[in-house]
Amino acid sequence: MALQQYRIVQELENQWPVTEAIDGDFVYLPFKKSNYNNNRTERTKGIEWTLTPPQIKATKTSFRLTGAYMTTKTHTETPYLHQSDVVNSTLGYQRYGLYEQSIRQYDLCTANLTLIQRIPSIRMVFTLISEFNIYTKHNYIFANRYAIGWYDNTGKYTDIPEANRYDSQYDDLTRSTQTYEQDDPPFYSNFHIQIRKELKSGHSFSFFANNFWWYNPTYKNSISLSEQTLNNKISFGFSATFKL
After folding, report:
1. Cα 172 from chain centroid?
2. Number of structural domains, the chain?
3. Integer CA distances (angstroms), 139 to 72, 181, 224, in order
4. How far apart are CA 232 and CA 215, in angstroms?
5. Residue 199 above 90 pLDDT?
6. Are both 71 and 5 inside the same structural domain?
């Protein structure tokens, strides 16, 4: 957006001053407009599995082991705009580069171990769920660091031929490799418990606690230098089931 500059022609007491426009003197302010689009593609492949061994009859103990591996690739067709972090030495301002969208891949591997302990004599059921976040990985299959075109500070667009995108004249538009670096969390676990009391009439009452050990591991992201908490805070709940 072009903001016209003015000069003061006459100062007036207790009134707005008299001004006039300065010919050809504009300050250009960036204005970015976002539009809805429907050109994002996600492809997900994966596998899930469940292992349920027979119940240990002597102790009425059951186990269930589940796991999943999933990989997702995401791509958007619309190019994106980014203001250069460096002032162009010739033009004296920061250009706006236009870049092709990168292709991102997200891999996730998790497992859950559930232990169910029944005590028929007192009609109690104890359930312990152990969650294991084994592997989380963000990666760029295609990371475009080089601009396909650029806008000056008046909004004029200039296309960059593919053969010239690596020239030194566009160094200020070349994005750093750190832009696409990812720091993923390490392996971590979480634990939940549920206690259910069953009555002869068929009613039951349950108490549960998520993250009952109050285990909140943290890790420091080496890219953003921020410390992140991997589990939610401990939470409690109660439910009741009535049989009519």
Report:
1. 27
2. 2
3. 10, 8, 16
4. 9
5. no
6. no
